[in-house]
Specification:
The structure is a single chain. The chain has about 725 residues and is mainly α. The protein has a five-stranded mixed β-sheet, covered by helices on one side. About 10% of the residues have low confidence. The protein is built from 28 helices and seven strands. The longest helix is centred in the last third of the chain and has 41 residues. It is elongated. Helices cover about 65% and strands about 5% of the residues.
């Protein structure tokens, strides 16, 4: 009987957790669709960009991937939906943009559920509050879990960050799941039975978190040491659980990296050596040792932090504060610090804050909930929908330009600080050139002692653009550049280009093929679209270079209401230029080689191109399709020949008639007399109509007085017609009576 009751209770708990998980997935999917702002470059460049390159074969790998500092297990999570979409032929831009977010939403929902479970284990040990008990005290067994879930869903930083494709977000979900199964000392005894304590599972989840992000070892090392010292079965824990699970995780990670790197790489060691021993993390900024304590964690935990402290004090459960404390202190050791690094420490705080809400009386709980909503919702919505949105929304502008066929030559150039917006995942076109300002550290892609591309551009933007892309030849007013300017720029003798677009009439007969090729190659080096922040335009030489190539502004997007770090400004601008039509270069070369006129060379080039397209099309056809195509071509050829023959016959007849008329003087004299008579009759008719008031000459041929007389006559005629119609209508009504 007891077993049946326990089985029914377990089944009810499982059903409850499934319902909670489904609700959390729905919430996080909506959350993922709402987040449309930029936070940090790693969201794209260390996860989905890598997955995109793995599946589709193009994209960009940052310098970390060249030096074995990142593991491939995390990007593989997002490579799965990409591969499925590619297999079924649905790999559109919308899929490459949103499918990783949906996957991450499910991962975040799993983290929310385990915050629920963690609060249940830590704070559901007290008995149910009596009905007549009016003072604050212990909560109902599941109340702490439910309110912890509320805190997790309401937390502004979870809404803003948890659904992004950072490795930190996956690490946080794995960490809270591991915490929910860890054998805690002092956890609620009635909830800490065998079904809740799953130490091997907890170790496996913790190992996975360390594989996804090696810095998670700072989180788990103190708990591992504590369990090794306090556990009754410490030998079993170390030799039969921790070491085998850790070794398996390391082996799996290393083998996966071996497959994709093509060489053996121990990413955990590489990561530790670069960040801890070489101090490489400071390359992206350093903070005071106390930043996590005084700014980082208070900013993301906000009102939940004092609630959690109250819960731990009142219920004598110190595990949440211990986990948060050693995590914040551990992450204070490296010089480089970020808000997202502290995401795994947020779950214990939320679990404890939920327990405190559950123990509040009615009015105090309402006040606390109102305070939470007022502090969390505005921050979540503003940061997720508005702040730093320009660098994300600009990708939609670029994608639309690509779909409209407006990109050409070198494609898209980003002059923003490096990695400030998504890349190929948000364009998803293999045939579009894309370039940005590289910022590889010295010795990791940039030679030691030299500046990276971003710093070179910042130092002298105009010189950087002229050196890499050349100087254009369009004048500011759009007129043709003179011959001297052309020779200085490209070293050619003939000039005929306006904004980089050659015109048939401007190309001289002696234009050499090498000059046409050189002109075309110069234009191909230059991008068709340039993305920059508004402040970049003011840098020395940028505006001049844009004008020299005929660029004009096509988009002006709001980015931020207040400036943030790393030279990020308020607005994002997009510039584009007209296409340099390759047909003109090809026609010019054909005309020079064959001696044809421009019109002849143009027709020959187009015929050759059509024949090439037809040949390429025929190579993919079946025999029946090829026969049908040839029959259609024969019919079209016959119709064209018949039309040509009829046109030639008509022209020959007209020519013969004209020749015969030209050979007969009497016919010429008669034709002249006939035309003179027609002109005399026309003039007489105009005079007659003028006398009768029926002048039908156009207004342009009348004098002002004649136009006024015409208007008066027309008005009088209209009045007469109106009076006649009214009289007729009155007479008709009289007859009816």
């Amino acid at each position: 009987m007891a077993k049946a009751a326990k089985k029914a209770e377990t089944k009810a708990e499982t059903t409850d957790l499934r319902t909670v998980f489904a609700a959390c997935v729905l919430f996080r999917v909506v959350n993922a669709l709402c987040v449309r702002t930029f936070f940090s470059a790693d969201e794209y460049w260390q996860s989905v960009e890598v997955a995109h390159k793995l599946v589709f074969g193009y994209g960009h790998l940052t310098w970390e991937w060249s030096h074995g500092l990142r593991g491939y297990l995390h990007p593989l999570i997002f490579a799965v939906p990409y591969k499925i979409a590619q297999t079924i032929g649905l790999d559109s831009t919308a899929v490459t943009v949103w499918s990783p977010r949906i996957v991450q939403a499910v991962i975040a929902a799993a983290g929310d559920v385990h915050v629920y479970k963690l609060a249940h284990r830590w704070f559901a040990g007290a008995k149910r509050k009596a009905k007549d008990e009016k003072s604050e005290g212990a909560a109902e067994p599941d109340a702490a879990a439910r309110w912890a879930l509320f805190c997790s869903l309401a937390c502004w930083f979870n809404f803003f960050c948890a659904v992004r494709t950072f490795s930190n977000c996956t690490e946080a979900a794995l960490t809270v799941a591991a915490l929910a199964y860890w054998p805690w000392t002092g956890a609620a005894s009635e909830n800490d039975d065998v079904k809740n304590v799953k130490r091997p599972l907890s170790l496996a989840l913790a190992a996975a978190a360390c594989v996804v992000r090696p810095a998670a070892a700072l989180y788990w090392l103190p708990m591992f040491v504590e369990e090794s010292v306090k556990s009754v079965s410490r030998v079993r824990f170390i030799l039969k659980e921790a070491l085998p699970i850790g070794a398996a995780a390391l082996a799996i990670s290393t083998c996966v990296d071996r497959v994709f790197y093509g060489r053996w790489e121990i990413v955990l060691w590489n990561f530790f050596r670069f960040n801890a021993l070489d101090g490489g993390g400071a390359l992206y900024g350093s903070h005071p040792w106390h930043w996590n304590l005084t700014q980082g964690y208070p900013a993301i935990a906000t009102v939940f932090l004092p609630l959690a402290a109250m819960a731990c004090r009142d219920k004598k459960r110190w595990a949440p504060l211990a986990v948060v404390g050693w995590t914040v202190l551990g992450y204070s050791v490296p010089a480089h610090k970020e808000f997202r690094f502290l995401l795994p420490a947020l779950a214990p705080t939320l679990a404890a804050a939920g327990a405190q809400l559950a123990s509040f009386s009615g009015r105090k709980r309402v006040a606390a909930v109102v305070l939470i909503l007022l502090t969390q919702i505005p921050a979540a919505l503003y940061l997720s929908l508005r702040h730093q949105s320009g660098t994300v929304s600009v990708m939609s502008v670029l994608t639309a330009a690509v779909d409209a066929g407006e990109t050409h030559s070198a494609g898209i150039l980003s002059l923003t600080p490096c990695h400030q917006h998504p890349w190929t995942t948000h364009v998803h076109r293999p045939n579009v050139g894309m370039r940005f300002l590289r910022c590889d550290p010295p010795g990791f892609g940039t030679p030691k002692g030299e500046l990276d591309e971003a710093d070179k551009f910042k130092a002298d933007a105009g010189a950087f653009l002229r050196f890499n892309f050349g100087k254009g030849w369009a004048k500011p007013d759009g007129s043709l550049a003179d011959a001297a300017a052309w020779r200085d720029i490209l070293g050619v003798d003939q000039v005929g280009w306006d904004r980089g677009i050659p015109k048939p009439g401007d190309i001289e007969p002696n234009l050499h093929r090498k000059d046409a090729v050189k002109a075309r190659n110069a234009a191909l080096k230059v991008p068709s679209h340039v993305v920059m922040f508004d402040g970049v335009y003011a840098l020395d030489g940028v505006a001049e270079w844009l004008r020299s190539w005929g660029f004009f502004k096509t988009a002006d997007l709001r980015h931020a209401d207040v400036p943030v770090d790393r030279e990020i400004q308020f607005r994002v601008w997009v510039f584009s230029r007209p296409d340099t039509d390759p047909d003109h270069f090809e026609i010019a070369a054909v005309a020079e080689e064959t001696g044809m006129t421009w019109e002849q060379a143009e027709k020959a080039t187009m015929r050759l191109r059509e024949a090439t397209k037809r040949r390429d099309r025929e190579e993919t056809m079946t025999h029946e399709e090829r026969l049908a195509l040839h029959e259609q071509m024969a019919r079209e050829r016959k119709e064209k020949e018949e039309k040509r023959a009829a046109e030639l016959k008509r022209r020959s007849e007209e020519a013969a008639a004209a020749a015969a008329k030209a050979a007969d003087p009497d016919a010429i004299i008669a034709d002249r007399r006939r035309k003179e008579e027609e002109e005399r009759l026309r003039v007489e008719e105009n005079e007659r109509r003028k006398l009768l008031g029926e002048d039908d000459r156009p207004d342009e041929e009348l004098t002002p007085q004649e136009r006024l007389d015409r208007m008066i006559r027309q008005a009088a005629a209209n009045i007469e017609r109106a009076e006649a119609a009214a009289a007729k209508e009155a007479e008709g009504k009289k007859d009816e009576l």
